[in-house]
Write a structure and sequence with these properties.
Elements lengths: L3 H9 L2 H27 L6 H9 L18 H12 L3 H21 L2 H12 L4 E5 L15 E4 L4 E11 L4 E9 L10 E7 L5 E5 L11 E11 L4 E2 L5 H37 L1 E2 L3 E2 L4 H29 L5 H26 L10 H13 L4 H8 L5 H7 L1
Parallel strand pairs: 1-4
Antiparallel strand pairs: 2-3, 3-7, 4-5, 5-8, 6-7, 9-10
């Protein structure tokens, strides 16, 4: 059965982009989909072989300039890749997705020429990955005020503290650490980002145990026990860490919205096929019932509106006209609608929807991440409402 989302994408993107999307989609169908169930049942991460195959397709270098060995694409290409891979597994999609949007992207946008030459060619080739150290055990939505500190020394900086929920930590060569450097400055000017090698003797990593979402994606805890780095490790400007973080997350929210859309697209196709094949009551398919049709139509309308809004937001992002509030709203709505409709989709399919081989339960669980990843929806609502209530926003500043 043709992916329903393809019907909408054809009208929203140009022919070259759709050809690229088709190539990643076919790779996902032919190479990734047959392996997912095995990885899940073996409690394994995405295999090194699959990562290598994605690297050979150029997925780790999509928006990186050709001068640094990348594909010379843009953020829309990255979102399309996420939709194509996320259709079967968000865990697979987030592996190159986070490697680019949270790893290479901060370096592309805020790094100096020396840093770009030193790292981007290997990042584009998939030979190494950067991980973004943002969330902490005591800091989630209040990421602008980290507990990890960087104290000035005679030779540079000394970092202490812990980051968690760091995607791709198992494969990372370096971590971009968002650290508190000037606690007395005004909000937004207190932090600095540092590029720190993961093999530094005072850097300690462990995979976070017990995670029940994005099971094939690496999610690590990284601690810094007096890590010494020089000024050359600063990414962006001193006290400019908040700017690096915001610049990174704005595009990342579009990628996460794309993962939610991909899960909804999978659920829609699965349900419309099941509704026509499942025979019950008078030897007729359940798709004849109005309640079943209502859910399928609701899913289709949400898919069309979600992917249309997302593509428009990507266009604005490429033109540097996407406000933080609009990026937040796209992420909130796509993740919320997909999550709500996924439950109704599972009700249509009944008990079979609980089986791992059917696929819906995987997307049901992973959609939770899209509601809290790149900023919790509840916290983002506070940000997104500010332009609507400017007088209240000034009072709360």
């Amino acid at each position: 059965m043709e992916r329903r989302i393809d019907h909408y994408l054809k009208d929203l993107i140009d022919e070259d982009r759709f050809t690229f999307y088709e190539a990643v989609r076919d790779f996902s169908d032919d190479v990734i989909a047959p392996q997912i169930l095995g990885w899940e049942r073996e409690h394994a991460l995405v295999s090194d072989a699959a990562i290598q195959q994605m690297a050979e397709l150029g997925l780790f270098g999509l928006p990186i300039d050709e001068a640094y060995g990348g594909q010379g694409g843009d953020h829309l290409d990255l979102v399309l890749m996420g939709i194509a891979l996320g259709y079967h597994s968000q865990s697979v999609a987030i592996t190159p997705g986070a490697a680019v949007s949270l790893g290479a992207k901060p370096l592309m946008l805020c790094g100096n020429e020396e840093q770009k030459k030193a790292h981007l060619p290997d990042l584009a080739a998939g030979k190494r990955m950067f991980v973004f150290g943002l969330s902490e055990p005591g800091r989630g939505s209040d990421a602008a005020n980290p507990e990890v500190t960087a104290v000035k020394t005679d030779n540079g900086w000394r970092l202490r503290g812990e980051k968690c929920w760091s995607t791709n930590a198992a494969w990372a060569s370096h971590v971009v650490v968002h650290a508190l450097t000037h606690p007395d400055a005004k909000n937004g000017y207190r932090t600095t980002c540092f590029i720190v090698p993961m093999d530094h003797p005072q850097v300690h990593y462990q995979e976070m145990a017990g995670k029940q979402v994005w099971k094939q994606s690496s999610t690590g805890s990284i601690s810094f026990d007096g890590v010494e780095v020089g000024d050359e490790s600063i990414l962006g400007d001193l006290q400019g860490g908040f700017k690096v973080m915001v610049t990174t997350l704005n595009g990342g929210r579009l990628f996460v919205a794309g993962l939610a859309v991909a899960s909804l697209a999978f659920a829609l196709d699965k349900c419309r096929q099941y509704a026509q094949e499942r025979i019950q009551f008078e030897d007729k398919p359940i798709g004849r019932f109005q309640r079943v049709q209502d859910v399928i139509l609701d899913m289709d309308m949400a898919l069309e509106s979600g992917v249309t809004w997302l593509m428009h937001a990507c266009d604005l992002y490429l033109e540097n006209r996407l406000e933080r509030e609009r990026a937040a709203k796209v992420k909130i709505e796509c993740s919320r609608r997909a999550s709500d409709l996924l439950v109704r989709a599972m009700e249509i399919c009944g008990g079979v929807a609980c089986l791992d081989e059917f696929g819906l339960i995987r997307h049901h669980d992973d959609l939770f991440v899209t509601r809290v990843g790149e900023g919790s929806n509840l916290a983002l609502k506070t940000q997104a409402v500010r332009p609507l209530l400017p007088d209240i926003a000034r009072i709360l500043q």
